[in-house]
């Protein structure tokens, strides 16, 4: 099966909104910034907001795990969590039965740490000389910051703390005179999406997640990619498996998924069926020495009782074994008289 450009969206999956500014936090590497970016998004989802920002996620797994969403190994996750915990921006608690690790980003601490890091950064840079400012190109790029020029308040690199906070506030709250529609920040984007990154139902013309029905058909491109990932043939006849899949999940209308997720679940259903059939065939062809065959090897009758030492000596001497002493009564037993 050849790979086409149309399969690219299914291969890529959902992206992670990476905030590069988090690398300016003290002791935070790129891995820590990636972890914090995803954790900040999850803290602001509607489900987590109802729990005061708390959410839980497994370290590893094919879906809905730190490894699946960020590509970070378990060791890299531990390092990132340690970095973020040391500066107080990531909170963790382990609870529940079975125990799960719950996370929350302390947004107040994050804002303070980020403001201090940016303020320290501007304090460390030397002021730019007027001569260097004159060497700027005629047409400045759109990313050129006006704070890099001399101002009546002094050099932008040596701004007092109050002025720096004013400039920071201007960056956080754009002016109404700015051209174009203001872009939503990470908090607004998180509030518009569900926990798994899908757009919220109220933001769509039609819901993305639907229940299974008996006329459902898999998404062709996603089906081919999922089959390739599990080593299955996309051209195999799976008509019977598709009917069973529809009937099983149609009986549970409370379960909803996107079209792509239902398609991946179908491929997993086919894979698990093929795996069970293979295991059953091996059990039929491979002889075993346990289970039912063990009962067939048992003796048909109970083995003879072993002789005692006294019985063995009597048999060797050719005499009857001695009986234990008892009371002997003369006479004839009468059943009517109930005695002798």
UniProtKB/TrEMBL annotation:
Domain of life: Bacteria
Name of the featured protein: Uncharacterized protein
């Amino acid at each position: 099966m050849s790979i086409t450009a149309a399969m690219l969206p299914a291969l890529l999956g959902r992206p992670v909104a990476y905030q590069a500014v988090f690398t300016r936090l003290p002791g935070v590497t790129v891995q820590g910034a990636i972890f914090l970016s995803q954790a900040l998004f999850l803290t602001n989802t509607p489900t987590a907001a109802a729990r005061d920002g708390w959410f839980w996620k497994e370290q590893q797994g094919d879906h809905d795990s730190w490894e699946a969403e960020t590509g970070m190994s378990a060791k890299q996750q531990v390092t990132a969590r340690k970095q973020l915990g040391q500066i107080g921006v990531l909170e963790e608690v382990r609870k529940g039965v079975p125990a799960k690790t719950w996370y929350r980003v302390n947004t107040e601490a994050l804002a303070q740490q980020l403001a201090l890091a940016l303020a320290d950064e501007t304090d460390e840079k030397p002021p730019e000389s007027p001569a260097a400012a004159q060497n700027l190109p005629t047409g400045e790029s759109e990313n050129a910051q006006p704070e890099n020029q001399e101002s009546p308040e002094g050099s932008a690199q040596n701004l007092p703390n109050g002025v720096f906070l004013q400039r920071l506030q201007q960056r956080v709250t754009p002016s109404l005179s700015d051209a174009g529609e203001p872009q939503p920040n990470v908090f607004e984007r998180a509030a518009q999406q569900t926990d798994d990154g899908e757009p919220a139902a109220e933001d769509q013309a039609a819901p993305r997640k639907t229940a299974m029905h008996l006329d459902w058909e898999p998404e062709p491109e996603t089906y081919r990619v999922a089959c390739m990932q599990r080593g299955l043939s996309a051209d195999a006849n799976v008509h019977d498996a598709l009917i069973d899949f529809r009937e099983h999940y149609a009986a549970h209308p409370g379960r909803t998924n996107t079209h792509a997720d239902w398609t991946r679940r179908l491929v997993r259903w086919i894979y698990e069926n093929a795996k069970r059939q293979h295991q059953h065939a091996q059990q039929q062809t491979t002889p075993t020495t346990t289970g039912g065959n063990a009962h067939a090897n048992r003796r048909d009758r109970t083995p003879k009782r072993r002789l005692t030492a006294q019985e063995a000596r009597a048999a060797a001497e050719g005499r009857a074994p001695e009986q234990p002493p008892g009371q002997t009564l003369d006479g004839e037993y009468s059943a009517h008289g109930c005695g002798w």
